[in-house]
Amino acid sequence: MVIGILGGGQLAKMFAQAAQRMSFRVKVLDPTPECPASAVAEQMIGSFKDPETIFKFAQGCHVLTLDIEHVEVEILYELEGKIKIIPSPRIISLIQNKLMQREFLAKANLPTPSFKKLKDPSQLPLLLPVVQKAIHGGYDGRGTVILKSKEDLFKALTVPSFVEEYLELAKELSVIVVRNEEGQTVVYEVSEMVFHEEGNLLDYLICPARIEKSLEKEAKELALEVVRALQGVGIFAIELFLDRNGKLYVNEIAPRPHNSGHHTIEACYTSQFEQYVRVVTGLPLGSAALRCPAVMFNLLGEEGYFGKPLYEGLPEALSLPGVYVHIYGKKETFPFRKMGHVVVLGQSIEEALDKAFKIKKVLKVKGELKK
Amino acid sequence: MVIGILGGGQLAKMFAQAAQRMSFRVKVLDPTPECPASAVAEQMIGSFKDPETIFKFAQGCHVLTLDIEHVEVEILYELEGKIKIIPSPRIISLIQNKLMQREFLAKANLPTPSFKKLKDPSQLPLLLPVVQKAIHGGYDGRGTVILKSKEDLFKALTVPSFVEEYLELAKELSVIVVRNEEGQTVVYEVSEMVFHEEGNLLDYLICPARIEKSLEKEAKELALEVVRALQGVGIFAIELFLDRNGKLYVNEIAPRPHNSGHHTIEACYTSQFEQYVRVVTGLPLGSAALRCPAVMFNLLGEEGYFGKPLYEGLPEALSLPGVYVHIYGKKETFPFRKMGHVVVLGQSIEEALDKAFKIKKVLKVKGELKK
After folding, report:
1. Residue B198: which pLDDT band, with cuts at 50, 70 and 90?
2. Could you tell me which chain A residue has the CA closest to the CA of B345?
3. Which residue has the higher pLDDT, B200 or B97?
4. Which residue in A254, A353, A343, A362 sits closest to A297, CA to CA?
5. Distance of alpha carbon B366 from alpha carbon B126, whole angstroms
6. Strand A63-66 with A2-6, pairing
């Protein structure tokens, strides 16, 4: 069986590795020569935003999937029925439009921050504090700004956007849910995401989340409800807000393997990538149980460095037990670019965190060019 | 860094996958087009028994290693010093000659079955019961015959061979030892190997071995002594005999990742393949600790089937938790060919064994041709 992936980034690379263990063939479509997945799978160089290219790529694939949701979706509607597409074009469309995503959640009576379309940007000063989100194309923290006071207004987005209530958050959580064509589901343990103040990028992730059992149960049930409401087939990361009153809100849905599930490779019985392989190939789902506490953090390009990446501190990091360094193989680094990630296992969260902090201090992605 | 592997079988494939996680590049040299490792790494099609081909292959590699010890070794002596070779040609030579291997063990005062070169095959009837071994080229049970009585003599080997005492065995054990260039070592938990009566092939493996703590310690120390005596750099599987009096003997040494270490991917903190990657790239060794009990069995080509392999029972196998199916991607099956393996994790050995037996009944490798 040949699995085609739109996008050849790190998610496609890790997916390919899981697929190859069972000898499924993987092809990726990506415009960047030598994209991360090309090191392990066949790459067709081309744009996943071009209908004709996608059409050509789909020939010879038995199933199509993606590692990024910003793909040209109209052609996928045309291909549907001729080839299995997971997630479905309907879901991809919904996720591409963050306003539609919010509307879907509200309509399904799922808790989500209250929101409204921003018709006139001159209204913004009256709405403070507020969160402004681009309707299209947001990714990795781009396309979201928090406007607390008038001093922040210079950051306001000028693209089509909506606003939503600014919540005082206690934590941000993530739950990975897998659902196959038979409707079988598995839900991973709740992860806690700690964000980098500056880049609005994930700083580190802790699994299991440091929350009470009852809340854990509630979060998992809520995530499952979202996927059921979507009637989604595939793997979904449900990002949740926990406010200071202990109330949960659905923030965003990612219809693919997710950064908040990277620890599942080493920490769970079945990784998010293998689950996704099982879904697209029609195999039964595996156990999502957590084998031990884990901390994950991204390896981001250091500020001030560009060009060919240089990895510093690898021997020091690997001299600690239960440490897994993933390097994606991107050919160029730039500040805050996701160049890899590290998973740290421990007997306890504290032990894992302690090791993670040590590694973060020494493991750096610098570059050949310094500016 | 580019790592070159002589041989592109399943060991090279799994090694490549571990290397690729940290974005090391892997090239393999193998005569069979579309060899297992070619699905994930760059293949040069050519013989690892041809000096010129090996010489050409080595250009552009920073380090050379192997997935099979039956390679042309003279050229490796010439290349030594120009390129890092792990294991060293000295060790490859020693392992290629099973008689020299025995002599080395005896000289190092390591317990090994008593043996002597068979100069005259007509002596065999006087030596019964006895084990006869080919000096060169034995692999996966080929090149070893057990001659218990005169009725067995028709099986006697006609190639240069030696004989060794026939031991009444209680168990066969295996210990994986890793040693890097700095002399740092790690030793894995002892595995117990249960052999298939007929094919003399591994039937299933249990880790940890069901033996007493004191014996476990003795086995690990003995394996470590073997690698120290070898002054070996690399990864070594030390196969041990345990006789019915509780005495341990060194049977054979494999100077590479080994079938008896396949469970380490899922059951240990650091897999045998990642350890090997760390050794060849000069990184510190990882923890070899066992995370939970494991059973491993090989997926062998069913008797009577040939041609393109067909895998039966995959959904049934994967519906159980903690089950990992590796399919090597060989293009043709034949009876008893190693086509893949399965690792089963459990809370206890009994639980893992129970699941393994269930899977063995349903998971079959058949083929397009039936004879």
Report:
1. low
2. A269
3. B97
4. A343
5. 43
6. parallel
B292 interaction partners in chain A (CB closer than 8 Å): 291
The pLDDT score that the predictor gives to residue B203 is 84
The three-state secondary structure class of B327 is strand
Find the chain B residues whose C-beta atoms sit closer than 8 A to any C-beta of A: 13, 17, 20-23, 25, 39-40, 269, 278, 282-284, 286-287, 289, 291-292, 314-315, 318-319, 321-329, 340, 345
- CA dist A258 to A176, A291, B72, B151, Å? 8, 19, 46, 63
**B325 and B274 in contact (C-beta within 8 Å)?**
no
How far lies B68's CA from each of A137, A146, B5, B114, B180, in Å?
Answer: 50, 59, 9, 27, 20
**Subunit contact A22:B327, Cβ cutoff 8 A:** yes
A307 CB neighbour count, 10 Å cutoff: 15
Are A242 and A279 in contact, with CB atoms under 8 Å apart? Answer: no
Question: Which of chain A's residues have a Cβ under 8 Å away from the Cβ of B21?
Answer: 17, 324-327
Q: Across the interface, do A323 and B39 touch by the CB < 8 Å criterion? A: no
Give the three-state DSSP class for A91: helix
Q: What are phi and psi of A293, to 5 degrees?
A: -60, 150
* CA A27, A32, A37, A42 torsion-angle sign: positive
Q: What is the ipTM of this complex?
A: 0.94
β-strand partners of A268: A290
CB contact under 8 A, B325 and A22: yes
Residue of A220, A223, A197 whose CA lies nearest to A208: A220
Burial of A361 (0-12, 13-18, 19+ CB in 10 A): exposed
Q: For residue A38, give the DSSP letter.
A: G
pLDDT band at B276 (very low <50, low <70, confident <90, very high): very high
For residues B75 and B89, what is the distance between their CA atoms, to the nearest angstrom?
9
Residue A202 has a pLDDT of 74
Instruction: Copy the structure tokens of residue A89.
Output: 């074009």
pLDDT score of A171: 94
Q: Percent of chain B at pLDDT above 70?
A: 98
The C-alpha atoms of residue A145 and residue A158 are separated, in whole angstroms, by 11
> Tokens 């490792």 belong to which residue?
B37
Chain B environment of A278 (Cβ under 8 Å): 318
- Ranges of residues in chain A with a pLDDT under 70 are 138-141, 197-201
- Interface size, chain A vs chain B, as Cβ–Cβ contacts under 8 Å: 81
